[in-house]
Design goal:
It is built from nine helices and eleven strands. By secondary structure, the protein is an alpha/beta fold.
Amino acid sequence: MNTILTIAGSDPSGGAGVQADIKTIHRLGAHAATAVTVVTAQSSQGLQAVFPVPGPWIEKQVEAVLSDVTPQAVKIGMLKTLEAVRAVCSLIERHRLPHVVLDPVLRASAGGRLLDEEAVKPFLEELVPRVHVVTPNIDEAALLTGRPVATPGEAEEAAGVLKGLGPDVVVTGGHLPGACVDILCHAGGVERFHGNRLEAPFAHGSGCVFSSALAAGLGRGAGLRAATARAREVAREALNAGYALGNDWGVVHPLGVARFPGVNRFEERGS
Ligand code: PLP
């Protein structure tokens, strides 16, 4: 069975983070191995506390997985500290991790900063250039590039700036006004994926679902274009199946669409 390794934070609500990644990866027919980078305490009422797992402990978890299993792809989610950013850079280098998809989680949907201020520059200068694909939403693309990102054109420009640092880029456009447009920027050029706007109020976890579905696709051998198209479908289905949770928000449901088994669709589409 394919194994996808997710290196990400824990969300006790079960909606985002490593919990969302596990559901998504299993939905796509792969096994999810996990290394927890941060333990958050959060609910629909807000982000209450964050405990960063020390860098050497992130490394120990990943190395325990690698001692037994060779993952076909890796998803990186929330990292809080400079130490965590450097630990992950070192793991990518030392183990030549394959198909590394970085979801640049900067702020919690519950409110509050997730990546420490002092870690932002090393995140951009040391981590982003080492990964294969980075998947910011428009707010993250704006924060990372220091540019406004409020139109598809601006999303393309931000994608180009991030591509200049090395990795391929998908800017997810779910929060763009008007139609949803995701931008893929890779060596072959820039492509736009258009979709109708979903009436999906329960979106906590959607970025996690997209990035782990992308990693699962790349791990199955799909090309970046096909893996992006499929990850969009998976994220949209999870949004459509989302449900209210707690007092103030709702979560996506990566397993809520079992009527679309989805497992063999990369082969059908080719890469
Ligand atoms: N990872 C963790 C641990 C989180 O708490 C959050 C958001 O609160 C995320 C990732 C990102 O969530 P989303 O997929 O909604 O962007």
